[in-house]
Amino acid sequence: MSWRPPYYSSKFRHVFGKPASKENCYDGIPITRSVQDNYFCSVNPKFIAVVTECAGGGAFYVIPISQTGKIDPHQPKVCGHRGNVLDIKWNPFDDYVIASSSEDSTVKIWEIPKHGITKSITTSKQDLLSHSRRVGIIEWHPTARDILFSAGYDYRIMIWNLSSGEPLIKNPVRILDCHKDAILSMSFNTNGSHLVTSCRDKKIRVIDSRTGKILQESSCISHRAIKVLYLSNLKMILSAGYSKWNNRQIVLWDQDDISVPLREEDMDGSLGVLFPFYDPDTHMLYVAGKGEGNIRYYEISSEKPYLHFLMDFRSMLPQKGMGIMPKRGLDVTACEVFRFYKLVTIKSLIEPVSMIVPRRSDSYQDDIYPLTAGAQPAMTAQEWLNGFDKDPILISLKPGSNNQQYLIKDSEFCKLPDFIRKEQVRVNAIQQKPEQRNIEKVQDQKKNFISNGYDLSECPPPKTENELLQMFYRQQEEIRKLRELLAQKEVRVKQLELEIKNVRFSSIGY
Q1: How distant, in Å, are the alpha carbons of 50, 80, 128 from that of 209?
Q2: Which residues on adjacent β-strands are paired with residue 66?
Q3: In the 8-state DSSP scheme, what is residue 457?
Q4: Residue 335 has what DSSP assignment?
Q5: Which residue stretches of 283-417 are H helix?
Q6: For residue 446, what pLDDT is reported?
Q7: For residues 108 and 128, is the Cβ–Cβ distance under 8 A?
Q8: Are 307 and 264 in contact (CB under 8 A)?
Q9: Residues in contact with 507: Cβ distance below 8 Å, sequence separation at least 6, in sequence order
Q10: Among 393, 389, 374, which Cα is nearest to 192's?
Q11: CA–CA gap between residue 177 and residue 7 (Å, rounded)
């Protein structure tokens, strides 16, 4: 009999949900009554967009994040669709560009003024016309600029290149035609090279996002997946749906083999669709149910039993849909690691809920805020179409750090590691007196630039303060991961020691 610790130790065990006060909510918004199982809300650090009920077509609000309280009933809208809006998504690399899909079989790209909407917008920046039926899902590529994916009820996924700027695009650059039924959800891995989808035929498919080739296909008939998520940093895929007994269920799969699930977790017998959200920085999974007010959260690990329940946030206000704030828009001074925007239809209300890690210190917490994906694309649309795959560009969330151009003060410079300070001095000398550069001294310095087996002389030296700090943060992240790995190994060693003792005692007893 294997030994398993009765208590799972985690720095996120005491995370709690903190709903916003009434004056910090968005009140008086007629939320859509569509029965589509979508989120109907999209958020970035500048605006919150929410699909609204509108006669004679589809529309959605775009409200500045700071404009809380009672919303003017005559608030301007974005209303250019002839049918109900089914999905909206902000461009991850431009806070003033949003895409929308509709029952009228079109996808539209909108440009929002930097000062916000002062009058209703009816003319879109770009119209994408090729789907023959309603378009239920849209997703931006996570690392390439101006690449948009749309999935319609014509069973096809279309890839659009928006970099041309043409107001009307009728031909997508790719069509992924590998589904036999309606597509329910889709999710990218970290660099966007693979796409996982759930379909009404009860199958999960892992697809090459550029060619449409099916890499894997699940054959598990006991689980009906509605929503799927790629957990790339753990090499897993998560699906949320229903078991063969119609219980709500979440399932973990190995991303390299989805023939057999790694872990199945039954939730309850409710009928509302489960909305899963994953935070790769903290390895936390949040699960919210449509039509209920609770949000359960778990921590996922790479070893059995994989899924560890932490706690749940309880509320009497049921959610119709939800939006989440990107990590760069969180309040790190309050140890906020996630923020939801709940759409409460019965009260025409949008309620922010912050997930807080309780800490006594008011200083920046490096262990809960590792480097995270920023708002800068890793490559252009044409580079991705030509076959390149790149990981997202990471940024630091530390207050006061400008990720576009780091400014290092003297006091902060003294705190940097020796090899970075030496390199900074060398770069400054080269920039001030390039004609007096001594090649022999530079070569002697390069011999000392070795840290954790990483030879900095093998790559071009950093030329800016930004590159120096990025190198420093990368090493901090590497040290943090090594410490976590060491802690996991120590726990495993203790488990094996106890198992050996149990085997010895059992053999003595016999």
Answers
A1: 28, 29, 19
A2: none
A3: G
A4: T
A5: 381-385, 410-415
A6: 41
A7: yes
A8: no
A9: none
A10: 389
A11: 47
Give 10-residue mean pLDDT values along the chain (510 residues). Answer: 55 92 94 91 96 85 94 90 95 96 96 92 94 96 96 96 92 94 95 95 94 90 92 94 92 93 91 94 95 94 91 93 95 94 94 94 87 94 94 90 47 45 47 42 43 47 69 79 85 83 70
How many Cβ atoms sit within 10 Å of the Cβ of residue 67?
A: 13
What are the structure tokens assigned to 414, written together?
């003294």
Measure the CA–CA gap between 169 and 26, rounded to whole angstroms: 35
3-state secondary structure at position 374: coil
pLDDT at 361: 79
The strand pair at 248-254 and 263-266 is best described as antiparallel
Helix (H), strand (E), coil (C) string for 29-52 = CCECCCCCCCCCEEECCCEEEEEE
Q: Copy the structure tokens of residue 40.
A: 């109907």
Report residue 321: phi and psi, to 5°.
-160, 180
> Any residues with CB less than 8 A from the CB of 254 and at least 6 apart, and which?
235, 236, 237, 262
Nearest to 315 by CA among 284, 283, 347, 285: 347
3-state helix, strand, coil in the chain (%, to 5): 20, 35, 45
- Distance, CA of 150 to chain centre: 18
State residue 459's pLDDT score: 52
| Tokens 């920085």 sit on residue | 281
pLDDT of residue 391: 93
The pLDDT value given to residue 506: 72
Report which DSSP code applies to 320: S
Q: Pick from 76, 78, 88: which is nearest to 40 by CA?
A: 88
| CA-only gyration radius of the chain, Å | 25
E-only strand ranges, 335-494: 336-344, 349-356, 372-373, 394-395, 450-451, 454-455
Residue 132, C-beta contacts closer than 8 angstroms, at least 6 positions apart: 105, 152, 154
Q: Is 107 helix (H, G, I), strand (E, B) or coil?
A: strand
DSSP annotation of 379: B
pLDDT confidence of residue 277: 97
The pair of structure tokens assigned to 243 is 């078991």
Residue type, 341: Y
Closest C-alpha among 336, 334, 388 to residue 361:
334
